[in-house]
């Protein structure tokens, strides 16, 4: 693409670079200039204008933006019309935004004029919410650069990325039933249990999930294991089991993970690099149709503030897998807002 000043008489077929106010109205930037526009410019006494002239190997801004947007978003994404080199992408349904950040970063690294901006991956989104915008900075970009962007978004260079899924998609909430096991000690107040129950219910509501079963048992591995087995064996078994221990889990041999093992399950990960939320346990029970997820809730989840439990719950609520590797990758951005009730505040000046 060539850019710069040209004689108005030679500007037919060029793109007007900047808006111009004429006695009879405004010519807006991005306008493809024809004879009628050139006559208006000449009548206004404008002999020279700044334009962009596309060449054979260029792709016009709107065409390029549309192609990149369609390579980026899948069927569950509403892709808007191109205008001024921009296409916006919106969620068709409420759910979890799932990004292949490596592919998006690789695409953004190709050419300064081809840009993609998105929300953070694993962001909960509402139906109709904007997810990303594709913006072409100049009036045209080289076809070779655009083709490279499309290839990187598809993951052509990485066989592991060729899953058939787009780099940006929305996993809709599955709206499934959930079982909750809470433990108590002799001196546990009912208000403490009620606070956790309410916090869990409030977290499930935006995901379309519901608290279908609840048991309160002693804070002992056998009692918790038996409660998990009872829930898992029901004909209408929940799709997710949550365990809230009255005491924090500090080791794989502690009550909650030990109970999962006693129930015939497997502890997948104990702990996470998210604060608050470090003391979460991810596990599963074997079922005929696959693993039944079990999450040991960190005690900080009695607070409605965002914590590591939310990160895991959202992925499970959208039917997305949560592996040990997934949890270990949550550390960047995992330093969250302080919870006022924690026994050891971060700021030493706030400690008793």
Key descriptive features of the protein:
26% helix; 3 domains; 352 residues; four-stranded antiparallel beta sheet; 29% strand; 20 strands; alpha+beta; six-stranded mixed beta sheet; Molybdenum Cofactor Biosythetic Enzyme, Chain A; Molybdopterin biosynthesis moea protein, domain 2; 9 helices; Aldehyde Oxidoreductase, domain 3
Question: How would you sum up this structure, described in words?
Answer:
This protein is an alpha+beta fold and 352 residues long. It has 3 domains: 2-53, Molybdopterin biosynthesis moea protein, domain 2 (Alpha-Beta Complex), CATH 3.90.105; 58-171, Alpha-Beta Complex (Aldehyde Oxidoreductase, domain 3); 174-328, Molybdenum Cofactor Biosythetic Enzyme, Chain A (3-Layer(aba) Sandwich). The chain has 9 helices and 20 strands. It has helices at residues 35-43, 61-72, 101-108, 143-154, 190-204, 221-233, 255-262, 308-317, 324-328; strands spanning 2-7, 15-16, 20-22, 25-27, 48-53, 58-60, 77-79, 86-91, 95-99, 114-118, 124-125, 130-136, 140-142, 168-172, 177-184, 210-218, 240-244, 266-270, 281-287, 290-297. A hairpin with a 2-residue loop joins strand 19 and strand 20. Helix 2 (61-72) runs parallel beside helix 4 (143-154) and helix 6 crosses helix 7. It is elongated and about 90 Å long. The relative contact order is 0.10.
């Amino acid at each position: 693409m060539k850019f710069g000043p040209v004689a108005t008489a030679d500007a037919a077929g060029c793109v007007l670079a900047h808006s111009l106010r004429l006695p009879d109205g405004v010519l807006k930037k991005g306008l493809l200039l024809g004879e009628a526009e050139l006559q208006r410019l000449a009548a206004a006494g404008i002999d020279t204008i700044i334009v962009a002239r596309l060449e054979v190997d260029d792709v016009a801004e709107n065409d390029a933006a549309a192609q990149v947007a369609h390579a980026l978003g899948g069927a569950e994404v509403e892709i808007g019309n191109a205008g001024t080199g921009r296409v916006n992408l919106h969620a068709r349904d409420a759910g979890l935004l799932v990004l292949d950040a490596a592919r998006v970063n690789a695409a953004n690294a190709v050419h300064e004029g081809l840009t993609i901006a998105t929300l953070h991956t694993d962001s909960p989104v509402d139906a109709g919410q904007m997810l990303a915008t594709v913006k072409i900075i100049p009036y045209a970009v080289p076809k070779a650069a655009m083709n490279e962007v499309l290839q990187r978004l598809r993951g052509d260079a990485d066989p592991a990325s060729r899953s058939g899924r787009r780099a940006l998609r929305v996993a809709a909430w599955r709206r499934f039933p959930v079982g909750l096991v809470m433990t108590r000690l002799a001196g546990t107040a009912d208000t403490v249990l009620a606070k956790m129950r309410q916090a869990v219910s409030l977290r499930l509501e935006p995901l379309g999930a519901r608290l279908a079963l609840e048991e309160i048992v002693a804070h002992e591995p056998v009692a918790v294991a038996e409660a998990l087995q009872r829930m898992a064996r029901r004909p209408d078994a929940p799709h997710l089991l949550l365990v809230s221990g009255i005491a924090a889990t500090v080791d794989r041999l502690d009550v909650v993970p030990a109970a999962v093992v006693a129930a015939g399950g497997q502890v997948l990960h104990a702990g996470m690099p998210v604060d608050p939320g470090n003391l979460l346990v991810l596990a599963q029970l074997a079922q005929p149709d696959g693993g039944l997820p079990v999450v040991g809730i960190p005690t900080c989840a009695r607070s409605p503030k965002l914590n590591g439990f939310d990160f895991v719950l959202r992925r499970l609520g959208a039917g997305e897998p949560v592996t040990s590797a997934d949890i270990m990758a949550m550390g960047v951005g995992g330093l969250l807002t302080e919870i006022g009730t924690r026994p050891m505040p971060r700021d030493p000046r706030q400690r008793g």
